[in-house]
Amino acid sequence: MIAVPGFEGRRVAVFGLGRSGITAARALQAGGAIPILWDDGVSGRMQAEAEGFQVQDLTAADWSGFAALVLSPGAPLTHPKPHWTVQRAHQWGVPVIGDVELFARALAARPQDQRPRVVAITGTNGKSTTTALIGWVLKSAGLTVHIGGNIGIGVLALPEPTPDAVYVIEVSSYQLDLTTTFAPDVAILTNISPDHLDRHGGMEGYVAAKRRIFAHQAPDAVALIGVDETWGQGMASQLSQRVIAVSSSAHPREGGDPVLSSGQDAGDRQLAASPPLERPQNWLPAFAGMSGVEAVPGAIWSQGAILADLTPARSLPGRHNAQNAAFAYAAARALGVSHAAAVKGLLTFPGLAHRMETVGRVGAVRFVNDSKATNADAARQALAAYPSVFWIAGGVPKAGGIDDLADLFPRVTRAYLIGQAADAFAATLGDSPHVISRTLDAAVAAAAADAAAAGGEQIVLLSPACASFDQFADFEARGEAFRAAVLALGAVPETAS
């Protein structure tokens, strides 16, 4: 656990006692604060009381004595309307922060030469795979690495800082909204597409939340930005820190290429800042002061030279995984990992559960679990990775449904539709072969039978393009249900996709 100083002897309100809230309370208490806890749910309050924390109804509390409100990222900060604790905090001039901000303050309180390094990753899609991949590459290179945040372990539950450590932290837009000083050494924005718009008041608010990952970086820090969308392009052209643009040839850059900072260094090809340069004919220079990397299926490139051949990497199929690998390669190099060690780490990555994960085979039929694809843009990456699939999709639909995937429907041999979105997705698919299965078990059984009857190598792909909450607690539960259904068919498990 990471103790949080700066609030010694002061009362700090903590609302929301899920994983991040109860961990924040422990970290505050370890640093000398007096956390006052509340949750709308009885179970959270009972757990807090069992641990000996002060539990007090914050509706009746004296807010004039609070040094801060630590808010659960699940509680709305601004939209659709501020949570009642946020309104109360504003009335009394109490700062509203989250667990990532507490983490930042805990590190900042240490002497400069005793601080660990931090890599932070955000984005609409790809952030979990990129986080896990960076952690793997750095560990493979022999670094002391702690991985957490919005993935796995809450950030304040990670081990106490040591000067040699690197924290690799996934951060959501909700968490970033609650930061005021967070300053990672390497900050990564994988991509941006419309998501969580109700919580941010529209696309402008969502983009602003993501931009906060770069807001407090030091001038010599590194920003890795996906520039396939205009939002990423704009950020890349506006930042003062060292910028590396990561692009995919699958997405032409709209509105012209961004003007990026680049530099040259003849030593170990370290990153170096220099004034913005006009775009050369080939705008992706070599790694010396690298301002850009381009991802294509099976490889990452810079200035016409291949940086890494990814074809042996079974866990990194498709263009989107090449782009994830480009982020990981650049992050590792920025932290001093050698080219050879970075590439070795990429090629040995075992993959991430619920993301393009092969869970088993029945004969020549391979079953791929992409349950983490909770929107159409994420599902696009999986559909585009295979020439043909038997596709299981559905759940709680996001805005726009699967309309934007129409260009990939020819790759779908047949779709099997589940959950609340089934009827709407059927209408969107139109004449494309599909069946309404309603439940995941029924979809797996039907897809397996059809794939086996088709003969030859076939893919049954769960890539729902939807949230899971109509039938499952979360995307992990949905992915595990898929795994169980596949294994019940007699599938032979596989550990890498």
List keywords for this structure.
globular; 15 helices; alpha/beta; 6-stranded mixed β-sheet; 9-stranded mixed β-sheet; 497 residues
Explain the overall architecture.
The longest helix has 17 residues. 54% of the residues are buried. The chain has 15 helices and 22 strands. Helix content is 31%, strand content 21%. A 9-stranded mixed sheet has the order 7-8-6-9-10-11-12-13-14, sandwiched between helices. A 6-stranded mixed sheet has the order 15-16-21-17-19-20, with helices on both faces. Strands 3-2-1-4-5 form a 5-stranded parallel sheet.
Strand content: 15-25%
- End-to-end separation in angstroms reads 33 Å
* SS-derived structural category: alpha/beta
Runs in which pLDDT lies below 50 for 5 or more consecutive residues are 251-288
**Structure annotation, total helices:** 15
How helix-rich are the residues, as a percent range? Answer: 25-40%
Radius of gyration: 23 Å
Biggest β-sheet description: 9 strands, mixed
The overall strand count is: 22
Principal-axis shape:
globular
Compute the average pLDDT.
88
Strand order of the largest sheet: 7-8-6-9-10-11-12-13-14
